[in-house]
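target protein:
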Amino acid sequence: MKRQAAPAPALRLIAWYDGARRDLPWRAPPGGRPDPYAVWLSEIMLQQTLAKTVGPYYQRFVARWASVEALAAAPLDEVLKQWAGLGYYARARNLHACAKAVCRDHAGRFPEDVAGLRALPGIGPYTAAAIAAIAFDAQELPVDGNIRRVMARYHAVEGALGPGNPRIGALAQALLPSPRPGDLVQALMDLGATICTPKRPDCAVCPLSEDCKGLALGIAEKLPQKARKSARPVRRAAAFFAVRTDGHVLVRRRVERGLLGGMTEFPTGCWMDAGEFPLSAAEAPLAAEWHRLPGRVRHAFTHFVAEIEVWRAEAAGGAAPERCRWVAQAALFDEALPSLMRKVARHALSI
């Protein structure tokens, strides 16, 4: 049976990539063999997060846990500490669970096919396809935000395009088969990140410009069209920042499930969907003379905006309440504090 030739646009993309590829810490050198552990770790971190943000976190992770076996053996609390500030904390819990599953069920070797990868914790369709292509050169072409934008412009696809749009997926698949599918995927990612950017794309140097329909029609920069987003609701709560006479601060470990599960927080009262902030310390974790600090801490999550009223007290000490413990103030920011709680700490310590 005659082997199908690679599409010309895919060959141009790979040729461009050979000279313009980004130097990212998780990438194998040109001609080198990708490390599946590095590919998997980076792909999990890159979910809804920019590469420039991920870089330092990735380097700290691999410096501490150089293999999937080392990560699997690490305590979850330590993994959460290293992840603190990167957001979307379910990723960190799934990352740890996935490392354990790879070691327990696959002798420390990642499955090489999409089906096997999707059976692992925290790996969905996009991530499975990306790992299979980049780490194992499978003929897969996942579609992230960058690739969706490139395809929408190249084919002049109008209308709002959400993640998982089947038309964009089919257009991307038309770039296969490729002699180097992993490099093709990364070429498309780099093209969207550096040239076919959301604003002011540099079409003059794009390897796809000669037959880009969006460019020919003069509408490339307007594509893809975005669906109008509804306003995110605001949820409000009080956080209680207790400082012991020896300078230790009271913190609490969140339950494993749900938003920020397993992370460290300052004891927080009930969340309210609407209405005024609570104006008393009735929900405080211990008896003390609580004072409400001026101002509020605000933090945007994907589906809602959090507004926190911070209360502070000087505490005499004694046993910590349930799920709570005292932490030296000097070590406070070494804890697995999510970004919201880091903002609370800075607010409480600055006033």
Remarks:
- Residues 29 and 200 are 30 Å apart (CA to CA).
- The longest helix spans residues 90-106.
- The radius of gyration is 24 Å.
- The chain is about 40% helix and 10% strand.
